Amino acid sequence: MTENNQLYRTDIIVSTDDAIIGDHYLLIEHEKHTVAMIVPRTVINSIVGGRLKLSSSSCIQTAATSSASNMIASSFFSSTTVVSSSFESVGCIGLGLMGHGICQVSAFSGNHSKVVAFEKEQQFLDAGRERILKSVEKLVEKEKISADDAEKSMGRIVFTTDMDALHDVDFVVEAVIENIDLKEELYTALGQICQPKTIFGSNTSSLSIADMAAFSGRPDRFLGIHFFNPVQLMKVVEVIKTDQTDPAVLEKGLKWVEEIGKVSVLCDDTPGFIVNRILVPMLMQSMTLIDRNIASVKDVDVAMKLGCGHPMGPLHLADYIGLDTCYYIVKGWMEKYPNEKDFFIPNCLEEMVQEGDLGRKTGKGFYYWDGEKRGGPVQ
């Protein structure tokens, strides 16, 4: 094994005394080194007599990063075969901040013969294509990929405003704005357009997966597939299941996440899933400090960066995400869970959204913005 992040098929038995076993990962100590393997939940068939048996029909992705770890991993995988993608074709709906990244990583993973990129309006389709091209150009300039590979990968993407082009794809990932009425209209249409075998995945960060699954008419073939921004760089993807999700569909979703080079974490259908259930209330609390004139925008962000080691402060992050997105996430939670005290909208957020100051996307929020470049605080 000479390269990281490839999928292998094999039979191995490892002493559980030497392994830390998680829901989707193994950390195996071997000759004073650690090999990390990201695995689907169903890869763990049995733990018998202190030994862990891994099935040959399961996918294993090594996450070893050093040459020493690669050598160690090789000792576990004496006979390996690269596993092909679960889905021959994938559809991406919405090419905005998140959707263009999902489309890009899907096409550039090399696992799909076709990636259908859909936007309802031509202007948004063109903007999404341009975003992908700019990202790819940077990768080529930095010699992360070759120009030939970039051209081949871009050639897999079919850009369209015709929803019927999604009819024969195997997997659809939706990344439109967080509006449940819009998603109801979309999934109702998709349920009629797409063939019965097609699996649907929503990139929603906050809405009920079960509700959208019901709209689609195929609740057993529906998942939450929540990426993080920027999609091209952030490794984790939350995979959300409902009570009606078919276990085989769930396994396909988990496998796909790993095949495109990401790490899956599994969660039940609950408000905010894992990350946003922790993050969004923190953003709201940071805004209450502004409402109460307790600290300045700059000092709130500096405190969290230097005090907690965050790469950016919460108000900077809220601007980057989009203040309207933050607003509608919490508004939806408040409507569905009115007795949850953690869910509230600060006055400053309400005012800025009403005035159309939505952060990075409009050039003004808690900070001034010039495109992707953040300026000084407005306050």
Structural description of this entry:
This protein has helices at 67-76, 99-108, 122-141, 147-154, 180-193, 209-216, 247-259, 275-291, 297-308, 314-321, 323-336, 347-355, and strands at residues 7-8, 12-15, 19-21, 25-30, 33-38, 44-48, 51-54, 60-62, 89-93, 114-118, 157-160, 171-174, 199-202, 222-226, 236-241, 263-268, 367-370, 373-377. Residues 1-18, 21-25, 29-36 and 38-85 have low confidence and may be disordered. The strands form 4 sheets. Strands 11-10-9-12-13-14-15-16 form an 8-stranded mixed sheet, sandwiched between helices. It folds into 3 domains: 7-76, no CATH class; 89-268, 3-Layer(aba) Sandwich (Rossmann fold), CATH 3.40.50; 275-377, N-(1-d-carboxylethyl)-l-norvaline Dehydrogenase, domain 2 (Orthogonal Bundle), CATH 1.10.1040. Helix 8 crosses helix 10 (314-321). It is α/β, with parallel strands linked by helices and 379 residues long. Helix content is 38%, strand content 21%.
Q: Can you give the helix content as a percent range?
A: 25-40%
Q: Which descriptor suits the 3D outline?
A: globular
- The CATH topology of the largest domain is given as Rossmann fold
Order of helices and strands: EEEEEEEEHEHEHHEEHEHEEHEHHHHHEE
Q: What's the Cα radius of gyration?
A: 22 Å
